[in-house]
Amino acid sequence: MYRAGIGLLSAIFLAACGSPQQRTARLLDQRLEASLAADVAAGTAVVQQLPDGARVTLLSQSLFPNSPLALDDKKTDIGASVIEGLLDPRLMRVAVADTTTLPEEQRQIRVQNVEKYFAEFGLADTLRASSSDAAPAPAGLTISVGVYCPEYDGQAGDGSGPSNPVCE
Fold first, then answer.
1. Mean pLDDT in order along the chain per 10 residues (168 residues)
2. 150: which DSSP letter?
3. Which DSSP category does 161 fall into?
């Protein structure tokens, strides 16, 4: 009976901790919530936790500031806040979509602008095509970030080349 109790307790603890992908997805959600806290409080962004990552929905029509005040630290760059909230890019898969009622051409331009912004900051390899089977989101420009956990190759330490990221 004692062994059965220990086995059951161990199983409960393991289930509570979740898989490495789930824990990494929760970490991603927490980081995005923290880096976008001011935008969420201002009502210009929403962060949603997803089973395999998180989704940021930008609610304002103006995606990024484009005035001279954008660089004076008086206005946050929401794109930089999103990027700041990401984990190692090798663990991220990013899909951008516009779910507003704008004409199709304008929605495509907005998506291309965000994808270009990500590429200019060295994140082109994270970009993936948007999927239509995602969970419902508020109308806006959505940046869905999925966690990708590569197989652990058993290598650790120095001398083996660049380090490989792992899910926690």
1. 48 58 94 95 93 92 50 68 94 93 90 93 93 75 93 62 76
2. P
3. S
